[in-house]
Protein 1
Amino acid sequence: MDNDVTESGHGLVAGPDEAEARDRGDEQEWDQHAYTLMDDAEADRIRDLRRRRLEPMHIAGGTVGFGDGDTAGTINHYYGGTPQSKPVDGPVPQEELDVLRDFYVQTDDHAELLDKLHVKGVAVLRGTPGSGRYTTALLAAQESKDADVVVLDPEAGLKRLVNEEGFQPGHGHVVEGDGMPWAATLRAQLLNRLRTQETYRRSPLVIIVDDQVAVDGLSGFVVEHRFPYDLRLRVLERHMTVLLPEQPEACRKLLDHEIVREELGGRTSMTAIAFLAEQLARGERDGEDTDQIVQGLRGRLRARAEDLLGRPDRPGESGAQRSGLSLWSHAFLLACVVLDGMPLSRVSRESHRLAELLHGVRSPSSVPEMPLFEESLKDWLNRSDVQFTDRDGNPTAARHPECRVRFRQSGLGEAVLEVLWHEHSGARRPLLEWLDGLVTRGDEDTRVAAAQTVGLLATFDWAYVLEELLVPWATDRSEEYARRRSFAAAWALERAIGDPVLVPRVQSLLREWCRRPGFSGCAEAAYGTRIGAAFPVEALDSLEEIARRARGRSVRIAVQEIYAAGSRSKVVERLADWSERSSYWLIRDAAMCLERLSRFPGPLAIIGFLVEQDAEPREHLLRLTRNVLFSHQQGVRQRGWNTLRLWVERAGDEPGLVDALAEFITELPSPGHGGQGDGLRERFLFYLRLWQHQGADAAEKIVLRVTERWSA
């Protein structure tokens, strides 16, 4: 093999790839763990910052929601409730379908879809993400044959279906093509082959695609899923009836309320309408009157945001003249939105920079005065609906040493940005320029906040923000700012996929970027966010492609982030596959990830698979560990032994781990490795006794159990 490391009289001799890596300095971290740990500590901190800022953010009336990644995570396909996960080639529980049917409002395309399934057995349902396509497909597939419904793995593609792989006879089938490469290459020839098979007449198939996918030549199979405006009210009414079955008068009063009707017009997805219904019903169940309930709606937040920015109600007067706010006051308001929860000194400083940018794009005749001493910080606070708190969120005075600025009402900051973007277009470019400056000169907190704000703006205007910031960030090659901007683009995309409409757009974008040398670094960083956890197979495939194209480039940080975001078993399976490849670089990353994932705290640690009941991940971990320990490459083997030591040290502190680890170690020397297995046993016992001597409390117990089992 090209990458072998062989024994000689002078020690270990590295293969060409490993020698090349050391010559280039890429492998200095084999022996410099402090550098690796410093990198990982920074990654841990930034991951926590992103997570804390994403959790409270409301998008399209709901919240950012991801599946666990190990079951093809999705973003709230159904009409309402908590985020659901699609099973991979698995049935949808009957009780789940019953709940969906209770909330479902049938449209004309439902009957058309049923007709297509009866005639051809195969249909393509085309529509906007978030418009209820998924629910329509599930219920139509069930109704067409009065059968259970199976959701097929979208990442496995459609060609396998010709051989009936994944199909369950007598069931309806649904497969979703959002963001999948095969969705853009659907051909009538493939669908006709499926149609001619008797299987699909008995087991109908619905293929869901985005409304941006071209369907030329597929007219005989396509059903256009429509989202008429009046459907919003019908869906809301249905939800309210189900949620408040014994309060029809209260439902009618809410549905007829002018503010509720106005709010409904701003909801662009079925999921958003479902969240609105839940919010209204919750207020009614809590005993609030109608006026109290509507006060918390997003429309009211938008109205408050318009007041803060200045309503365009009276001709001849600027917003600043009507509201009494100067340009600096507006800048302070916007800085509070982006830097919510950060120290007052930082917010104030950055607001001055934003004010200067806003000042530069206005004509001299319309520039309000910027009186440095006529307005106080107290004036700005009163007009910005923010308050002072300490680090823990408790109200405090402005002179408190840890004084921070926070919005009083959740969601108001997003409403301010929405109003600014759509009604004050002149502020768009200076706002983006200011956010770019925050990314290049700020610390981690500021960079994450700015990047996620850009992601929110992308949900307002995807094409504009992509062209103005995301592409320049992704392709920045400057020595000083390239890394910061590349990661900022990734964090912005992570925020943007909270909008269901943008999910397939982002998927397609990243697939394209990972194949382009100038963009692949940003694609790698983006896959190392919740995007990768939501679509783990696609992300890991792309990362492997990036690693192959750029020899010597490690993608381990992105892989670790996908693992940390929830796709634990998928990542371990892929690492086990990489450990069996001929590529030195993939084997190296597999070994490095094995060691790093063993350092994760609590249940996230990879060693948790030893005590969990799921046998498949444990088997992948066994394969990965065995391949690393039997590797021909010295650096890879050393990573394996470092990992084993970490496990032994942790075993003394975690209940049940001693026996589980002893059993695992017993299985590692595979009979297939012959004499190498015997050598591994001897080395294990040597290291276990060494670690015991060095203070690993569990080592003695593990030695006794391992010796006993090997003797037997």
Note: The radius of gyration is 29 Å.
Protein 2
Amino acid sequence: MSSPLLPLTWHLARRSGRRGLQSHLLAAGAAAVSALVLLVLLAAWSGAGTRADRTDWRTPQPDRNGTAVQTLSTTFVRGEPVTVVDLAQLPGRKATPAPPGVAAFPEPGQVYLSPALAELVHGLPRNQLADRFPEPREYGTVGDAGLAAPGELLAVIGRAPSDPAVSGAAGRSVMASGLADRAVVSGFSGTAPSVFTAQDRSTVLIGIGLLVVPVIVLASAAGRLGAARREQRLAALRLAGATPRQILAMSGAEAAAVGAVGAATGALAYAALLPALAGLPFGIGTWFTADLWVGVAGAAAVVAGVASLTALSAVSALREVVRSPLGVAQQSDPRRTRMIRLVLFAGLVLYVVVTARDGGLKISQQVALLILFYGAFWIVGPWATDRIGRVLGRFARRPATLLAARRLSDDPRGAWRTVSGLVLAGFVAGFFSVAHLSFDTFEHPDQVAVAAPDGAHGRAAVRQSADRARELLKDAGVPATVQALTGARSDESLLLGGPGVLVRISGSDPARLDAATTALAPLNPASPPYTDKSLTAVDDLVQDQLRGLSLASMAVSFVVATASAGLTAAANVLDRRRVYGLLRLAGTPLRVLDRARVRETVVPLVLLAGTMTGCGVYAAVKLNDAGGTTLDATGALQLGLCALLGAAAMFTAIGASRPLLRAVTDNPSQQPD
């Protein structure tokens, strides 16, 4: 015999009327936003790993019995890195397989270019880029399988084993680690990704740690939207003889269905937005669309997770219905909070501070502590809201303030859910607005350096290289000053104390710099000319990633917070329509009710968000101290802008539900409640 619970649940949901439908739509909207953001975070995580895996073939993996020589070098054009992989098949060895994205192992003189690099080669004058590579009859193309991003600049060049580009000690220059290397290899199954993608996943993990808790909070709030109406209905069923298990099953099924529909809508929105998401730059460039697709299984898992979280949240809100259905039906049991929340909060914060102070934590451990810190504020939030309501009620002098205080004390968890998103977003804004990481940089924009070849470190040999450099630059038409250095001070040139040729370009023109770099390429084929970008490329990339992460995290956190505040504020109006109707019948003006709604949101938001923002600022100051940097005016202005955005988001969210308040209080004597 089939259970009557599901048909009864469906019947009650259909008969809940227009207000019930509105509550379901709000809950589905919260679930949709949660699923969408979770899928985007999961896509960034998996995509970062995927494109890092596609670059590990470039790092030579030494093999004593290898079949080919592989060298890795990095040159720069217009300040952008160009990764160059030179390959030479060793004679008398078995054939080496082709590298990823290349049709066949390149023969000597063959050149394969990525589409973006091919466009630059054909678009720039030959003396600025194309002359750095051999001139083939026809350029080949590196396919997507060998590229990290659509716009990546990569060249794969075939060489003879005796060519100085592969026979010399590549990587002996002072370039940043990972930009140059050489080894005898037998294949391209490397395990170390490119330096330009190695940090992508760790950076994304920080963003996930900052955003996953507010998103989960929004998903759990979806199960509690319309909770008051659901409690009244289920309390009546409980008084009519329904068992606690039946009540929980009905509520869980209804919330899971609403959450699943909303999460599925969010998944469809994610699929539709994939091309736009792929166009967002991160690290080395934009994304391949396929990299950001989490698959049907991943999307289904997120949908199921959001639906389960929504159902769990709805079931957990029914403890009072199960324990005291009569009290719920009569609305005689204010939802007080206990002091244990403050104790747990203090313990968790103390643990996070002590653990973080020890230092030496991995990225994953830091993210775990960050999530734990968020959890501590989530635990103490309702308790703090309850106490704010009590204090506010004690000193209230106006009716709107008194009503706001009563609502805060009667339902502190509901009031906290309205502001929790913006409170947690305050930490993100406070941290990223003040945090300012910087690295020691070599600012020599007018210099090009060429390390002395092996065996040519003497003064006479270096001078000979300098004379050759002057001839090459003269033929290229590049005005420059050439110096032969055998022991220059590190703060004066890019040679950092090593022997070699230092070229100073007149005018610091990027085109001249590229032309000089191209002209000097024959001077030492084993160690190409380099600029200051070769020393700072990795650090610049990390700073750009953190800057992009900060903007993306603040944008997403404010979007989630605004959605949470707006949906929760609208749901609170629907849940309290009976109370609002009675107040209107008692003669309370609509503007007083609206002011009370605003104050019950503004007061806890200002106090709690201010505290959370202060915590973010404190964490950023500590980070700045560790990095030897200080707060600048830009950070303070950005923090002020974030505060204005937060205030605008809050008032927008509250104002959006004002027409709903007017609708539910219109002709209250005719309302069925």
Note: The first helix runs from residue 5 to 14.
Protein 3
Amino acid sequence: MKLLKSSLLASAAGFAAVAGAQAADLPVKKAAPIEYVRVCSAYGAGFFYIPGTDTCIRLSGRARLDVGYQPTDARSNNGSAGDTTGYIGLARINVDARTQTGYGTLRAFVRLQFASRTGATGGLRSGTQERIGNAFAATGQDQGGRVQQFVNTDKAFIQFAGLTAGRASSFFDFYAHDFEFAGATANSDLQSTNLLAYTSKLGDGGLSATVSLEDPSFRRNTINSQESTAAGALSRVLLSTNALGVPTFQQIEVSQRNRMPDFVGVLRYDAAWGSAQLSAAVKELNTSNVIGTGSANVAGIVGLQNNFFAPGIVGPGARVSSEYGWAVQGGVKINMPFIAPGDTLYLQGAYGEGATLYTGYSSYNGSYARSVSIINGAAFDPYMSDATLNPITGKIDLSTSWTVVGSFLHYWAPEWRSAVFGSYGEMSFARGAREANAAAYAGSAFAPGVNSAAFIGAPGSRAFALSPALRDNYQFVAGGSIIWSPVKDLDIGLEGFYTKVGVQNGRVIDQFNNGTLTAAQVNALTAAQATSLRTVTASDTFQLRARVQRDF
């Protein structure tokens, strides 16, 4: 037994020796070293290195609920008016990637936004976003399109050695509703456009200059057409007159084409006390070639021609000549830590011709349209077109607009802050533009009843005097907010503001409280009957908006 035990031990030792020798001859596979995520402190909090690279990245986002209330006396069959409440649930995802190079920091930034919005009130369901392709109205059971899904490539740009290329905020903008929920004040605020820009520092101070070529599609507020507000809108202009002074007409499509970018130039100064900026922009307004001949109100055109223009005038040739709109804007931002840390005052003013979206004279819930109100169920819709195509001269007549805005943010305590803001602006159309369009379209199929914004009568008639079409107008906004931030990056707030839009002179007919009337019916009323017409000089409302927002 002892001998057997010794033999087994000897055999085991032999096997172990052979196995050890064979193992020594085999290659050993080592586990790959684990590369842990490293914090990148070069660009601030939240950045970390992408494993295996020298690029730092930061992921962030936002979740938000807005609930808006705006009273209205109007209820519409098609759902475009009548809602008093609206809702929006919004999601935002940010990706910021930066790499240090011999030319400075190479940066790429992407922001995607998604939202579900309902109700026609308060800009929560936005005609503006539908018109520029960011939002899509619902069909089916809702039928009125008051439910809207919003998908937006809000930012996607590259910055390198002073160059900015991609989708970003317009360099023209300055205040841009920084302290507002709804963005109700009249001031330039193009959050997303496609651009190519170069910025250079001037000297060792805080002065810089920027030249930017920007996508014109997002700064057009239409060339007015009395025939249509849709894409491919037509307008009729005088082609020529014969020896007897009888005119013939041609049809022109006033929907604009992308022929040249908008040119934006900016001078900016940043210092410890705040910032100041001077912006300027130039943009092209154009029409299509002649697409056909048509008829218009010949008698009215001839009569107006004799009143406003030289007899026998010869209109445009094969194409209406392009015009160039422009705008200038100046703003200052003043830090006021002597009142409370974080307190800030903005003051800004803008003036432009053919450039309402640069001056910010537009509707926050429905720009890119001939006539649209910033009030749900307004008694009339003010006209906001960049220009009109004059049917007598065949020229694009530029509109003028100007705005001023102020906003002040105050911290009552680190977790409590509030803002007050206000703006005023005016819109004016070229001399003779309203009369020329009225003469061309009075009595035609393109002059609907008074419950339409396109309603217009012959010059000198009662219908003409009461029409809102191409009337000089103004808008006024004043409001404030209170926000509670119980913990970092959480805002719970309430905003309220008052809005008023009106015509600069005269009165206009109330589009909701007179039934359906034609221009001929209005003109046929006796003086006694006319006193029963509901007319207004202005329309106003207020809005409340509550917000809960978490940034991370």
Note: The CA atoms of residues 179 and 406 lie 10 Å apart.
Protein 4
Amino acid sequence: MLTDRQIQQPTLTLRERGVQLTLRDRAEAAFAQGEALLPGPEFHRARIRLNEIRERFRARLRVAVVGRVSAGKSTLVNALLGEERSPTGVTELTFNVTRLRHAERESLTVHYRDGRPSRQRSPDELWRLVAQARHDPERLAELRAVDWLDLGVPNQRLARFDLVDTPGLDSYFGEESARTLRFLGRTGQDVHTATVEHASRADALVMVFASGLAESEERLLEEVTGAGLRAVEPMTSVGALTKIEYYWPACPDPVAEGRRVADRLMTKSGGRRILFELVPVAGLLATGAAACTERDAADLVELSRISPSLLEARVRRGPYFASRDYADLPVGRERRAALLRRFGGYGTVLACALARDGLTDRAGLREELLRRSGVVRLGQVLTEHFGNRADLVKLDAAVQEMGELPAQPALLSQPGQSGQDAEPWMRWRLEEAADHVTRLRLTEHAFRELALLRRVYDGSVVLTSQELSHVLRITGEYGDSPAARLGLPADSSPSSLVSAALRQQTYWAGVDLDAARGAATAETVRTVRRSYDLLLNRIGPVDNRPGGDG
């Protein structure tokens, strides 16, 4: 068995060599020290559990997309990826959990509920399975046994985190969905349970709200917060208000209406208690923009040449726009139908308006439509708020799970023995092993920053908008590098970094002297000033750098 001294030695050697250890490095050392205290067969189960927690910490961040059935979750996932990957048109598959992760080559692994081993399949083969199951009892039995799908995708947007598309938080469904569930041998409660189970195993959540699926906006929040998920908080939860394109044509500007509804949900309905941000997203517009072809762009340019009022009047007629011959429209009905399916009514009118203003090339049109859809902003929030703090978010969960180990009697029991019969020294050893990881909450400044952010989000600390921006930046919202934490260009010189850090320290020292700001602000200031101290240590003394700016 390794001793504490042997485990610590590599860390000491790295420090002696001047290598700056990361939070991940220190966490790995703590896990190793804890595991070393659990030798022998009597701690076999405890070691298995410890390694499960460690592997979750090592794994890529998992972000679960949750909400009601028909809220547009799969469409949102596809919009974030810029391609159709999560099943949206195959109802039987949308009632399964789908995990999408980055891979060099496309792959699909099907996991089953009935104990049979997981199986590699091609996506096309899985779609065929659905189609054939209605006529083949053997295929139907396999389809009913599917638990969840693991889809590997060569998509760089998945480089920072995995996305988990869940089926829905509903327990009761309309007749069409109920018929599909009966065909699959499942119930609405099965779907709800699977969603909660996989979402609770995720590190962060995208909570999807679709206005119109509840009788009030307050009810939208209640349906998600009361669904039985583990603690939902702004640190690990963001929201997407989907299907805003359907505000059109009642609202000429559905994006503005989406922002108004989102602001009301966040301020008056209590959304700020659980969400970092609620982003309005036109999912259909985003997926249409991502799949826009040269032919689509050319047709949109042609339609943009007629008067805006005539075009809007025709598009407002929906099915007629796609099926009737109009002498005053320069694009045939089949192509109009294709545009309407891809972009929707609002997207078609918007794209033509952009083309009318001179944005006629496919790439430029696609980029602007994506931006206006809100999906670019949502992707930015996921990358900054989750991706840039991935290790800390996962370590926070790991510390909590490790702290629960000594309270689990099964980890101390052996065959024929209950946990209550365990030797006291075994329980003490498990507490000591867990302590190597849980003490990180006391020794790592990143956890103080995390506590500060939680106080900011729950409203117990009042900051100006500029101060809030600085707090988010110095705590790593926009990246972990010294330049990112100071809001400077990536190629900034060491002297520029030091000067910026010292200026901020001076400002926060002034806030510290303002007794009128209260005790909560004083604690905030101490944390922020320490953050700048540690950042200056990372930068190092400028005048000692070879060829430096000193």
Note: The chain has 26 helices and nine strands.
